[in-house]
Amino acid sequence: MGIWRQRNATRTSRTVKVGGLATRAVRVGGLALVVGALAGRAAVAQPMVEARMLAGVHFIEMLTAGAKTQERLPLVVALHPQRGDAADFIALFQGLRTKARIIAPYADAQNGHLGWYRGESSAAGAPGPRRAAQALVPFLAQMQDAWPSVGKPIVVGYSQGAIVAMTLAITAPKSLSAVVSISGRLPPALFREARKTAPGPTIEIFHGEGDRAVPFAACKESVAVLKAAGFSTTVHFYPDVGHKMSRSEAQEILVTLERLLAHVTPTE
């Protein structure tokens, strides 16, 4: 059974100042604790800070494993699904046992349904995923300057967020160190471009074989293209899972992320 439920968290907030930006402190309740428990991890209610904007992108922040704000930390960027919510998706990472700064941006409301883009990822040229990825490139760069950071960001995406993350790996490979794709795919329009980009960032792919929203066949096709192109690609397939995240999948995502974080190296 899937554990992901969109837009169910209850929140309280207050206005604060972070780095000179007006921000809103947000605490997630309900879903955060449920996701942590189902992921088999001790879930601790951690404070989050919602900044108004950086590089034109609204986002929220969460520190894991007792990390402090001024520590030099690896960055994880979490891209929520269409019709999802950054505050809901960031709850998945509360059980992370490695210190990290989790940044969850919000998709542009102009796309409708809290989506990263309009249209299909299979459209000729993939204009939607390309524009969404392009808009995040300056955000990723400025984010590393905004806080004491270690290495390039790891980008984790779910569904439409995963499609944008995969697009970033091809169109802006130097902007990130790794991609964790959950129920996503690489747009077919980028297949040829992938062959010119490799080896690129490390890619970890999680997908349910019963997924109908982003068909499993489309995921397998993406994997074949990425591996043939020379990307370091690891797959995690789940026979009885659809488009929603299962308990075992959530556990393995955290374990995988901890492994990736352990290999993040400082950049100049």
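the 2nd protein, sequnce then structure:
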Amino acid sequence: MNRSGLTNRLVNQFLFATIVLSMPVLFAGSEYDISKETPPPPPQPWCETPPTLEIRIGVPGWLAGISGDSGVKGVVADSDVSFDQLLRHLTHVPIVLSADIRYQRWEFFGDGQYMEVGASATLPGLLFTNANLHLKSGLAEGFVGYRLINCDKATFSLFAGARYTYMEGDLSIFDNGDARLVILRQLLGISKKLDFSGSTGWVDPVIGARGKVKLWKAISLYAEGDVGGFDANSGSAFELHREGPTIVREPVDSSDWSYQVQGGLEFQVTHWMWAQVGWRYLKYDYNQGGFTNKTALNGPFIQGGVNF
């Protein structure tokens, strides 16, 4: 090997050693410390538990019509009255209220309403020419429920409780003060005014289920259904029928059942205010002691309230 080749070989080895030995120094400033990296946030669970305590107070408005059979003292008649007809005969603003309290998975809720309607009519007779009718109805229900699904985005509960129904009717018929009928009325022993009144009330045991699913941000879909009565107040019942010139009292099957479904959309308007828009249906099948209520309340349902 000549001197030139040996020189080139030594130079190459020197350069290679210099590069290898210099690499730690060259890359020392770019060393990556993984311990300083910010960890990614943990994934959010689908079921976030809501606050421990929640209180909701609402003012419901049920724009329901009434249809079906009803009667007092065995006299049964069919009726079909729309909400606008009821509205025209209201004697005062209905009293309505709802409350819903939840502690952890336990729920305590209920609602009630009281309404009075009245109407007057002119009679075709001579002895009695005018009539006034005044009807009162009340509904109150309370339940205790337990949430099987208790999430911020979805809930599902089973509940049990009671529903109280009250109905009262007052009927007055009287003459218009025609002086020509005074003697005839005295001879027949008929007073100038006759009053009839009656009332009934009963409590039904109720079981049911309800749930709610959040659709988008502040909008949720809710639904509720229950069944009650279970013939708890059934006994003997009768109805009156006309057979020729006579009135016949006929025994009929006694019953005590009720069914209810409702559902719609709920809007969380602000942090403290909410509103519901939906539909509500309540069916009675009650026949006891000459009183019949086989009517259905059916119509739009709106409600607004506050939550704490």
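The radius of gyration is 38 Å. Residues 2 and 8 are 11 Å apart (CA to CA).
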